[in-house]
Structure formats: structure tokens, C-alpha cells
Amino acid sequence: MPQWTALIAGATGAIGGALAGHLATEPNWRVLGVCRKPPKHPIKGIQYIHTDLMNADACRTAIAGHTDITHVFFCGRAPHDDRGRESIENNLIILGNVIDAAAAASRHLAHVNLVQGGKYYGVHVGPFPNPAREDDPRTVTPNFYYDQEDLLRSRSKESQWSWSAARPNTLLHFSPDNPRNLVSTLGAYAALCREIGIPLDFPAGEGSYTSLVQVTTTTLLARGMAWMATHEPARNNAFNLTNGDVFRWSRLWPQLADAFGIRCGTARPVALAEVMPDWEGAWHRVVKRHGLLDRPLATLANWAFADATLMRWWDEILSTNKARDFGFHDWDDSERRFMAILQQYRQAKLLP
Ligand SMILES: NC(=O)c1ccc[n+]([C@@H]2O[C@H](COP(=O)([O-])OP(=O)(O)OC[C@H]3O[C@@H](n4cnc5c(N)ncnc54)[C@H](OP(=O)(O)O)[C@@H]3O)[C@@H](O)[C@H]2O)c1
Fold first, then answer.
1. 4-167+218-240: CATH number
2. Which one of 53, 157, 160, 310 is separated from 172 by 20 to 30 angstroms, measured CA to CA?
3. For ligand 1, is residue 179 a contact (CB within 6 Å)?
């Protein structure tokens, strides 16, 4: 008999999917997964609830029967607005609606966990105090993480549930349906460099090539979120959750070149979002030659995402001391994990 029931908002997303996969293997958890569209690859043991979290009434009705919810994990992300920005208003609405619905359905609601990220410290904007600590001051850049955390803090005070927040940095994950993925995007880039017959140049500046980077494997993140949501001393706290190690692209790049049997090039800044869509024809040749699944390049590679991530020439480190201090000692080897996930894409016939 499971001890806890998790309601995962955003259960088909990069993080929600990893969390759902993890909790489904844990005997202590029953798992409800909220999303709008049916999952392409449903996870065994998850009960999916399809509703639009922007619609408070629909959300309340869809969740109403679930009187045993003990934990809400908020892993949703409202789509970008018309101007391509992450809407603070919409991200607040979907968080508020799911909390209201879960609290109305279940008097056992004990905890709400929120996923934030390195953007809390402005990792995407420019140099920031490194390693970033959870109690560092917020930045001047508006960010829905701040508003969502404030909502949790104030609502928790009036309720019987506690809260926690996980702060991963850039994710490492195998997600065949999500092109916002560094491994599949850079794997496609390397495959195209080989096809075109050029070395594997690093598509950003020397500073980005040699600065220190930290990433978070989603399976580790899932374990960390489950830990903080059930570990009493962690209540009402935020925790950085990264692999705990650091790497430089200049160390990983030769390994990527080796994996494709091409020469490692040099750091030469170029906007991949501008140039790579022109190589769709070359991608078709790659697909044919290597017998890959015939899917458009855009399902595998998000060039703008890679540009925005690789252009950071500053160190990007989130201290993991607090999580360790509170008892979470999990870690991962980022370089090894990157290469292992690349191998998963190859085995799935998505990359050559
Ligand atoms: N991805 C990263 O690199 C990264 C890194 C650090 C932190 N984060 C943070 O982690 C959080 C989750 O990000 P993610 O990348 O895992 O998200 P994601 O892959 O974009 O997934 C979003 C999820 O939210 C659901 N969703 C969106 N709008 C909804 C609505 N109105 N009603 C119901 N479900 C809705 C989606 O389901 P449908 O498609 O069915 O609507 C999907 O399951 C965000 O706060 C993000 O900023 C992400």
C-alpha cells in the first residue's frame, strides 16, 4: 500500500517525466500525472489526468476525485507568450490553480514542491557570484521563479502543507520527443559536421569553451525532488540540485568529435539558429545512410537553445553544499553521462 500520492503537474515535460518515471518505481508512491496532451510514451503505473491548468474550474473538476493526494510536484511550464517570453502571469496562474485544486480535493495535502532553475541566479544573463548559494539575493531580471516561490511561501503559511524548491541547472536527459536538449542538439550538430566534411568547431567563443559549467541529470534531479519532499528537515527550503561536479566544454568537445570520428576544431562563434536550418538536406542524407528513424531535424535539435546555452562565457556553478548538509549526497559524472545519453540516442536510431 503506497504511503504517499504524488500529483505531478507537467508529467510529460523533461523534468516531470523523469520524476514520474522515478516515483513509478518506488513502492511508497502512487502517482497522478497532469498534462494537456496524452503522453506519447505513457509510463506504466502513472494515472494521467488531462486538463488545462490555465482553466481553474476544469482543473478543479479533473482533480476532484483524488482525495488521497499528499504531495504536489509542480513541474509545469506555461508556453512562451506571443513575444517569445516566459509569462510570469501564466506561470503563476497554473501553479495557483493546481494547488487550489489539490487542496480542495484532498485534506491530506502535506507538501508542495516547485522546480526552479539556475535562472534564479541569472545564469542566463551574465556573470554572477559563483558558486551560487540558495540565500543569494535575487537579480533585477524579472523571473517567474521569484513570483512562484513567493506564492508558495505565503500560501504555505496559511495552510497545513510545507513547501520546497529544487534548483537544477541545464539538464542532461534522454527525451526523444523534446528537441530542447543539449545532447541531441549537439549530437545532430556533430553528425552534420561529419556529413559536410568539416572539423567539429565549438560554435561559441574561447571564454565559453574554457569556463566552468555545471549541469543536472534529470534522473538525479528526480531523486533529489523526492528526497526534499519527504525529508522533514528539508521542509520550507530551496536546494540547488546539480550533478555536483563541473566540466569545461574544452574537455568534452574532443570526446564528442571522437565519437563521430572527426577532427576536433576550435572555438569559432556562429549562430547555429541562423545557419543550421540550411543543412536539412544534409540531414536527410545522414538519416538515409545510417538507417535512422525518419524524423525532421527540428524534432531533435533546438539550435536557439544551444546558442543561448553555449554563449555563456562565465563560470556557472551552483553550490550543492546545502543539499549535502541536509543529507542528499547523490552525484553524477557529467562528462560520462553526456556521452552515455548520446549513446542512447544512437541506440534509438535517432543519431548516427
Ligand atoms: N528544461 C530545462 O533545461 C530546465 C532547466 C532548469 C529548470 N527548468 C525549469 O523546470 C520547470 C519545468 O521545465 P521543463 O523543461 O521540464 O518543462 P517542459 O518540458 O516544457 O514541460 C512542460 C510541462 O507542462 C505541461 N503544461 C504546460 N502548460 C500546461 C497547462 N496549461 N495545463 C497542463 N499542463 C501544462 C506540459 O504538458 P502539455 O504539453 O500536455 O501541455 C508539460 O508536461 C520550468 O520551470 C523550467 O523553467 C528547466
1. 3.40.50.720
2. 53
3. no
The structure's pTM equals 0.97
pLDDT digits 0-9 by tens, 79-113? 877 676 889 999 999 999 999 999 999 999 999 99
Q: How many CA atoms lie within 13 A of 275 on its CB side?
A: 10
Domain ranges of the chain: 4-167+218-240, 171-214+246-317+331-347
**pLDDT tens, position by position, 17-76:** 999 999 999 999 999 999 999 999 999 999 999 999 999 999 999 999 999 999 999 999
- The atom number, within ligand 1, closest to the CA of 118 reads 6
14 CA distance to ligand 1 middle (Å): 7
Q: Is the CB of 168 under 6 A from ligand 1?
A: yes
pLDDT, average across residues 256-278: 97
CA of 260 to the centre of ligand 1 (A): 32
Q: Going by CATH, does the domain composed of 171-214+246-317+331-347 fall within 3.40.50.720?
A: yes
If you write DSSP's letter for every residue of 272-315 in order, what string do you get?
HHHHGGGGHHHHHHHHHHHT-----GGGT--HHHHHHHHT--S-
